[in-house]
Every structure is written in structure tokens, then in C-alpha cells.
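At this stage, I put together a protein sequence along with its fold in C-alpha cell form, as given directly below:
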Amino acid sequence: MGPKPSDCIFCAKPTEQRDRENYILFRGRHGFIMLNAYPYSNGHLLVLPYDHRSTLEDLDEATAAELMLLTRRGIAALRRSMAPEGLNVGLNIGKAAGAGIADHVHMHIVPRWTGDTNFMPVLGGPRLVPELLETTYDRLLAAGIAD
């Protein structure tokens, strides 16, 4: 692992050792799971490597494999705690693909329910998430995401 850029929040948050405040739910050897601070829906998770890499092909095999295992862990906890009817799972690699933080690759897990979209994002851009991040954090911990 090389030096971490000081301006990358995904590099900084795991070094702060303030998991609850940073919404880090689980730490693996090569990566971690955290709540998205700007969720599309309740329970929107991010799965990230500790290594600062911009794309999947830059990750070593052990890290890439663990990211998929962490994704499975996140999905299982969401199913136990929130019973979503569906899930969007994917990556936005590069700014042109919609990555908000393009320099640190990360997987999104977005729980979905029938009829969960509304007119607000279409008209004005705001997203309405009817649960505090702290509440979602506690629900996922109770569902065994860290076990």
C-alpha cells in the first residue's frame, strides 16, 4: 500500500478510527463497508478498498475478491434488516459514468422497493430519505453486518 492522498475522504475516514461517526459498518482485511452519507434510498451502502485506486483493474486479486465478499455481506444484512424488494448493485467508474468521487473506486448497494421513486428528484434534485443515517446504521449492526 502506498501513501494515501490527504484529500480523499474514502482514504481518510477509515484512518480516523471513528467508525460510528463515519458510518463504517464493517472492516475487512482489504476493504470496508459504510453507509453512503448522501443516500439514494434508506440503507444505501458503499463497499470500498482501503487502497486508493480509481478502477477495478488496478486492484490486486485479493482486494477485488474481498470487495465482492463484502458486497455479499452488505446485501445479506440489508435483506435481514430492511427486506428490500430489489437491489441496485454497481460501480460508476470515472466522472463520465457519474462517479462523484472518481479517484477511489467504490461499489454501491442501493435497496429498492416497488414505488420507492417519487417526483422530487425529477423536479428539483432533492432526495427524501425517511430515516436518519444513525438509525439505519444501528439497524444494519443489529442485522449482523459485522458478525
In short: The mean pLDDT is 88. Residues 9-142 form a domain with the HIT family, subunit A fold (CATH 3.30.428.10). Strands lie at 24-27, 31-35, 45-49, 86-91, 107-112.
